Amino acid sequence: MGSVAATATSRRRRLSRIAPGEWGLAKLQLPQHFVDAEFTPHEADREAAWELYIELATRISTQPLPPGQGVEATALESLHSLFATTHEIMKRHGRDARAFARIGIAVLNRIVRPLLRQGASLA
After folding, report:
1. Nearest-10 crossing angle of helices 43-57, 98-107
2. Mean pLDDT for the chain?
3. What is the sign, positive or negative, of the torsion defined by CA atoms of 110, 24, 46, 64?
4. Which of 26, 54, 55, 74 is the most buried (most CB within 10 A)?
5. Rounded-to-integer distance, Cα 11 and Cα 32, Å
């Protein structure tokens, strides 16, 4: 168990060294059926997006799960906790990160929530 925690900590450190500007993403246009928004981030949006990126990149639910080598329930719990994590990030960055909040809420409601419903029906 210690090696898993050490690996996650190491990954977080590597990712935190990459500045948001190095992503090469200045603007993001999303399909209209997903959310009618063009994401042209302000600094608060970039900071909030970076926080969520670190959270996503270090979760079991975003890593390949070979058959028989993982616990699906743990992955589903990790996905479910994204609601609280995203909510906390939105509260911390407030109104200055409106674009991030619009996209974050759409992702939670249109992608994560249906995925959790589907996973719950399989359990």
Report:
1. 30
2. 75
3. positive
4. 55
5. 34
Phi, psi of 119, rounded to the nearest 5 degrees: -65, -40
Q: Give the C-alpha separation, 113 to 106, whole Å.
A: 10
Per-residue pLDDT at 7: 45
- Radius of gyration of the chain measured on its C-alpha atoms: 16
**In a 10 Å sphere around its CB, with 0-12 CB exposed, 13-18 middle and 19+ buried, how is residue 116 labelled?**
middle
Closest CA to 36 of 94, 110, 97: 110
- Domain-wise residue ranges, the chain: 2-122
- DSSP-assigned states of every residue in 8-60: HHHHHHHHHTS-GGGG--S-EE--TTT-S-EE---HHHHHHHHHHHHHHHTSG
pTM to 2 decimal places: 0.64
Predicted local confidence at residue 82, as pLDDT: 92
Tokens representing 79 are: 């996905």
From the centroid of its chain, how far is CA 100?
Answer: 11
pLDDT digits (tens, 9 = 90+) for 19-35: 444 555 566 555 556 55
